[in-house]
């Protein structure tokens, strides 16, 4: 696949957000440039085209920008995993630690996921806590989660250690040296 876009050119870097000492990677420029967004979705789709994937799950909030588009491109169902308190009815919940705090995510029961292979997608992989929590939720539904995908990876935060049981694909990685 040709690399017509320098993805880095479409990722904003915002220092000290959401708190002092954190560099926030803003994917808004990708979303505001349709060819860049199409390129991201096509690149992910191309990477997984020969994988036996039955469904796509994505994390609120920024994973929601990419996961449904990928689900449409791959003709797979999309399962949202949301922040606590955003879903009606019965939910399954999982708490986790962030690089700058803690949180909980939830999903509605999805018995149709039992025995299905799910690709879990988010915009950024930092410490891996959010994706690990989401994988736990999906596994409790009976799904198999082997593959995790992030548009951006921050390997210097050691997500590979906490996510060692998964295959991880990212489109771009940032090292501590190139911040």
UniProtKB/TrEMBL annotation:
<keyword id="KW-0963">Cytoplasm</keyword>
<keyword id="KW-0328">Glycosyltransferase</keyword>
<comment type="subunit">
    <text>Homodimer.</text>
</comment>
<dbReference type="GO" id="GO:0005737">
    <property type="term" value="C:cytoplasm"/>
</dbReference>
<dbReference type="GO" id="GO:0016208">
    <property type="term" value="F:AMP binding"/>
</dbReference>
<comment type="function">
    <text>Catalyzes a salvage reaction resulting in the formation of AMP, that is energically less costly than de novo synthesis.</text>
</comment>
<keyword id="KW-0808">Transferase</keyword>
<dbReference type="GO" id="GO:0002055">
    <property type="term" value="F:adenine binding"/>
</dbReference>
<dbReference type="InterPro" id="IPR050054">
    <property type="entry name" value="UPRTase/APRTase"/>
</dbReference>
<dbReference type="InterPro" id="IPR000836">
    <property type="entry name" value="PRTase_dom"/>
</dbReference>
<dbReference type="GO" id="GO:0003999">
    <property type="term" value="F:adenine phosphoribosyltransferase activity"/>
</dbReference>
<dbReference type="GO" id="GO:0006168">
    <property type="term" value="P:adenine salvage"/>
</dbReference>
<feature type="domain" description="Phosphoribosyltransferase">
    <location>
        <begin position="29"/>
        <end position="144"/>
    </location>
</feature>
<dbReference type="GO" id="GO:0044209">
    <property type="term" value="P:AMP salvage"/>
</dbReference>
<comment type="pathway">
    <text>Purine metabolism; AMP biosynthesis via salvage pathway; AMP from adenine: step 1/1.</text>
</comment>
<dbReference type="GO" id="GO:0006166">
    <property type="term" value="P:purine ribonucleoside salvage"/>
</dbReference>
<keyword id="KW-0660">Purine salvage</keyword>
<dbReference type="Pfam" id="PF00156">
    <property type="entry name" value="Pribosyltran"/>
</dbReference>
<comment type="similarity">
    <text>Belongs to the purine/pyrimidine phosphoribosyltransferase family.</text>
</comment>
<dbReference type="InterPro" id="IPR005764">
    <property type="entry name" value="Ade_phspho_trans"/>
</dbReference>
<protein>
    <recommendedName>
        <fullName>Adenine phosphoribosyltransferase</fullName>
        <ecNumber>2.4.2.7</ecNumber>
    </recommendedName>
</protein>
<dbReference type="InterPro" id="IPR029057">
    <property type="entry name" value="PRTase-like"/>
</dbReference>
């Amino acid at each position: 696949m040709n690399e017509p876009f320098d993805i880095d050119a479409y990722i904003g870097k915002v220092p000290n957000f959401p708190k002092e000492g954190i560099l926030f990677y803003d994917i808004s420029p990708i979303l505001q440039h349709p060819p860049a967004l199409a390129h991201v979705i096509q690149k992910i789709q191309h990477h997984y085209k020969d994988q036996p994937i039955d469904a796509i799950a994505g994390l609120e909030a920024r994973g929601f920008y990419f996961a449904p588009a990928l689900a449409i491109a791959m003709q797979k169902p999309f399962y949202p995993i949301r922040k606590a308190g955003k879903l009606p009815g019965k939910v399954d919940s999982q708490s986790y630690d962030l690089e700058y705090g803690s949180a909980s995510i939830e999903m509605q029961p999805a018995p149709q996921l039992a025995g299905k292979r799910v690709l879990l997608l988010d915009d950024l992989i930092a410490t891996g806590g959010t994706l690990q929590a989401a994988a736990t939720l999906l596994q409790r539904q009976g799904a198999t989660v082997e593959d995790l995908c992030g548009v951006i990876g921050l390997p210097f935060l050691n997500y590979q250690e906490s996510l060692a049981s998964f295959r991880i694909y990212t489109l771009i990685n940032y090292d501590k040296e190139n911040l």
